[in-house]
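FORM 12-B: Structure-to-Sequence Request
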């Protein structure tokens, strides 16, 4: 791994090697994470990184872009085929940039936009006052029903009628259930709004047809290419044919300048890989593992938000265990199980403490863990929740976690070149 850096900068090489060792020896269950294949790591560092180009194939601002044109056309065709979309733009640098590109394409300053509340599972870029987009647009937020802890579609509908948004956004960072895209699309149409789905978290499950696709229902579908899609750190936007021109202008020159062609090469590989049987098998395992985890934790007295999961995310309300998200996150980190604290609906704790945690099953499913291992992880989580400050318990779990994960190498084909 990094054979040239190893010679020229041993100090930095050592830090990267340490991170590889950390990932290898830990049970990574951050819901937004996944493991990049050897091909993706190669392509992310390939010679396309040397090339500056702006614009679109056939209409670039820099000479020498013919090969880049070939690659971008291939990637776009593969993305369109994978998702059955009319149009795809692979230039956004990340999921956030993908969202900004759509805003640049269709919104004017002061326009009303409806998104899901951050503390109910939405995303920073969907209207949080902490995000700079809130200075330009008038965001209003819908949330979850107190009873079901799922999207309150009636509230969404009455808010849409009252506020008459230009854009309605669905999708989030911590929403474990399916979203009724058809219903929100109908609401959007009835108030003359455009409909955007941010599928950043579930893009892999959608690609593998393990959960329903938002593409037939939305004007725009934005995404990260990491998270369940298991690709490089990048973004993309899909849209209906009628919005293609506006979207392309929104991306460039609206939101970005030169393209990260090396990352686009990795995305292009990813869209071929994600259409295959091997990827679908992993995505099926991701969803099965999340269901097993939710059931096993519920059986042990954890309160699972919304009563279960339909995707890769399990959200827990830890008040039933009398501990905070931060305490549980820190205790599990010591044990070698990596998760994150997360706000839950009507959380009485601060965002730096929280009453909940978010757990994801993508990385562990890629490594091959199945129901028996997930059961053991749930049992360890239970022991840790019952004694988060007991060194004896934590050390015993730490040995068990290391022994469990050692049987599932991060890169089973051998050491990275
Ligand atoms: C729903 C959603 N949208 C967008 C993003 C932003 O993606 P990125 O980190 O690639 O900018 C995230 C990341 O957490 C997300 O969960």
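FORM 12-B RESPONSE
SEQUENCE OUT:
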């Amino acid at each position: 791994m990094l054979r040239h850096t190893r010679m020229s900068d041993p100090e930095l090489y050592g830090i990267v090697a340490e991170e590889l060792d950390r990932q290898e020896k830990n049970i990574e269950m951050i819901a937004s994470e996944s493991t990049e294949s050897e091909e993706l790591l190669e392509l992310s560092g390939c010679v396309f990184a040397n090339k500056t180009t702006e614009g679109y194939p056939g209409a670039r601002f820099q000479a020498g872009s013919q090969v880049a044109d070939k690659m971008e056309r291939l990637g776009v065709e593969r993305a369109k085929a994978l998702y059955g979309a009319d149009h795809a733009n692979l230039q956004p640098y990340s999921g956030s940039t993908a969202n900004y590109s759509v805003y640049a394409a269709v919104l004017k300053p002061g326009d009303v936009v409806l998104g899901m509340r951050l503390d109910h599972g939405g995303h920073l870029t969907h209207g949080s006052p902490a995000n700079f987009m809130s200075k330009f647009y008038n965001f209003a937020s819908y949330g979850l029903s107190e009873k079901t802890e799922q999207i309150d579609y009636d509230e969404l509908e009455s808010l849409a009628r009252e506020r008459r948004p230009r854009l309605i956004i669905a999708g989030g960072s911590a929403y474990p259930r399916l979203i009724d895209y058809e219903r929100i699309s109908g609401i959007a149409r009835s108030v003359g709004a455009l409909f955007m789905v941010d599928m950043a978290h579930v893009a892999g499950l959608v690609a593998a047809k393990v959960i329903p696709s938002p593409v037939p229902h939305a004007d725009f579908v934005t995404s990260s290419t990491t998270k369940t899609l298991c690709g490089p750190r990048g973004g993309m936007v899909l849209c209906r044919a009628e919005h293609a021109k506006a979207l392309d202008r929104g991306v460039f020159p609206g939101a970005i300048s030169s393209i990260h062609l090396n990352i686009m090469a990795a995305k292009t590989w990813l869209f071929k890989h994600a259409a295959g049987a091997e990827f679908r098998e992993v995505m099926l395992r991701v969803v099965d593992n999340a269901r097993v985890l939710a059931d096993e934790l519920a059986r042990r007295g954890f309160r699972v938000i919304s009563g279960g999961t339909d995707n890769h995310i399990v959200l827990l309300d830890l008040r039933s265990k009398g501990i905070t998200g931060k305490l549980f996150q820190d205790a599990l980190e010591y044990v070698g199980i990596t998760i994150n604290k997360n706000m839950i609906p009507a959380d009485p704790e601060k965002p730096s403490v929280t009453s909940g945690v978010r757990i994801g099953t993508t990385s562990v499913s890629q490594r091959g863990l199945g129901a028996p291992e997930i059961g053991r992880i749930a049992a360890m989580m239970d022991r840790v929740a019952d004694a988060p400050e007991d060194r004896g318990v934590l050390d015993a779990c730490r040995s068990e976690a290391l022994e469990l994960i050692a049987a599932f190498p991060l890169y089973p084909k051998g050491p990275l070149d």
